[in-house]
Each structure stands twice: as structure tokens, then as C-alpha cells.
């Protein structure tokens, strides 16, 4: 019998290190005991208790809405920034623009959250908006730092796009806007989907920035989970984490499936054109 190589062993060890804690958490979500470290038999009572907890359900709904709108706006702004950085190669201030776009990637979240809090406070004093911090301020804050991640992802894809295809469309009389939507946009669609999923995950997971810019009427899921864990880990948190892991896994699989299906169709169409 052939012994596994060192690379295979390291791969297995890395996967266990990453996913074994998640598997243990999912296993203990079916624990009937109130103590998360003491096994007392299988039970689904904590899933029932979870769906009866209105505070957690409200926080989940709030986080999902903020993440959806933040990811959508981040894709729009990040795509525009990436297009400017890659297509307009010579203009005054390009280095400053690139630095400002990528600054949130390396900026500590505490600094970002504090600076946004001061911005909202001064805006409320000067123009009266926002009167109260809540979902809107969290949405603006999440869009701010998520746009940087989307810009990096989309810019890397735009640099790989063959410019001759766009130039051919322009030479044939296609307006620039039509060329972008019919030629460029389909080619960078996988990057847009990846950027949207990344921004959605970052917004859904954020705790520090949301803690600075949120008000008493808007609590995201990480804020509720963190406050409850400080008073003691509840088995309902294990059940909630299990559902989140399953939902993320399903969404990732569906995204991979449709992207692979689209890529296979594109390859088949190119093969048919070459054969014809």
C-alpha cells in the first residue's frame, strides 16, 4: 500500500484544522443539555428555541438586509473604481485614487469605525442628517470598506480581458456604453459575482464597524451574538451557527455550479464556432 505523501498529510491536517471545529459545533447543536461542553443526548430543542427568539430573528433579518444592499452598492462603486484604474491609465491623481480605494483593505477596523462615527456626528450637527444612527449608517459604513474588496477583485479580472474585443466593437460602431454592457460586462460577470459574495460575507460578519455606527434601534447579528456570548454561551448560538454554515455552503455550491455551467456552455459555443 502506497503511503501518503507529505503534501497530502499537510493538506489533510489543514482541512481538519479548518473544518473540524465547525463539525464539532454542528454536532453539539443537537445537544439536549444547557451546558455546551456537556453531552446529554440528541435533541432538536435548541433549534425550536432559536426560532422562538425574536431578538435573534430580528437581528438576522437586519443583517441580511444590510448585507444585501451593501454588497449591491459595493459592486456598483467597486466596478466603477476598478474600471477607472484599469482603463484610464494616464490621468492626474491616479496614484492617489488607487491608494484611497485600497486604503480600507489595510486600515484597522477600529480606526474606520471611529472615523465614520465622527463623520456621522458632525454631519448631524451641520445638516441635521443622520438624525439617528441605524440601518442607513451601517449600510453606508459597510459599503465604504466592501467597495475596496470588490474593486480589487474586478480590477484583476479587467486586466485579463482582451481589449481587442472591445476595440473591435467600437470600430464596428457600437457606442461605449453599449460595448460595456454587451461585451465587457458578460466577461467580468464571474468577478462581479465573486465580489458580491465577498462583500455580502464581509458585511454579514462585521462587528467592530457596526458597533461604532449603529444606534439603539439597529442591532446586527454579530452584535447580538457577541453580547449574548459575553454572558455565557447558549446552545442556541450553536444552532444558529449551524444554520449559517449550511446556508453559506449551499449558496457557495449553487454559485460554483452555475458558474461552471456557464463556463461549459461558453466553451461548447466556442468549440462549435471553431468546428464551423
Automatic annotation (TrEMBL):
Record-linked Gene3D superfamilies: MetI-like
Coarse class of the protein's main subcellular location: membrane
Keyword vocabulary terms for this entry: Cell membrane, Membrane, Transmembrane, Transmembrane helix, Transport
Pfam family name, one: BPD_transp_1
Gene Ontology terms: biological process: transmembrane transport
Transmembrane regions listed in the UniProt entry: 6-28, 64-85, 105-124, 136-159, 179-200, 207-225, 237-258
CDD domains in the cross-refs: TM_PBP2 (cd06261)
Family: Belongs to the binding-protein-dependent transport system permease family. CysTW subfamily.
Localisation: Cell membrane
GO cellular component: plasma membrane
Membrane topology: Multi-pass membrane protein
Protein name: Putrescine ABC transporter permease PotI
Domain ABC transmembrane type-1 positions: 60-255
Record-linked SUPFAM superfamilies: MetI-like
